[in-house]
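debug: dumping io for the single-chain case to check the tokenizer round-trip. Nothing else runs in this session.
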Amino acid sequence: VIGIESMQVEPRVDNVSTDYCQAARLSFLQLWQRGRRNIGFAVAQNLGAEIEGQLRAGYLVEAYAKGPARKIPCFRVAENRANIEYLSEWIVAEKLDAVVGCGVDVPGLAASINSGEGGTVAWASIDIRDLQSGCPCVPGILGDLGRRAVELLIMRLQINLLGLPANPATTFFPVEWRD
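debug: decoded output
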């Protein structure tokens, strides 16, 4: 058995996953290089704790490396209209000029929030599904993950045929930025 984007602890199986820590770091750095200094982080509530932890770690590494650490709380997004209004209020209250989002409808949120007053908020998306939207992002790499899962399965079968012990491992795929 090979898991794809599966961060379960038990039973231990081989797993192939996106490097979410790197994805968050890339997204933060791209916004920083474009002159944005107050960068928030919004994540969908339905992501697992492991993935959210990796994303948060990547975001915090870059946020704290870029000067005086101003703690901007993470915003957990639910899929409802009231939550979008709270997100808009959070952006204004925290004086954000950019947001890194994962697992949320970034183009939809950007259009909704940027249509109001108070300036334009830049957005970067991790694992965006609508690449036609023009939103800068770290796109999903499901095709690469599937291919790597098949390779791992073949390798695992070969190891088992030799009678060698094999401990389950997670393979993290590097990601790329796309404008």
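debug: round-trip ok. The radius of gyration is 18 Å.
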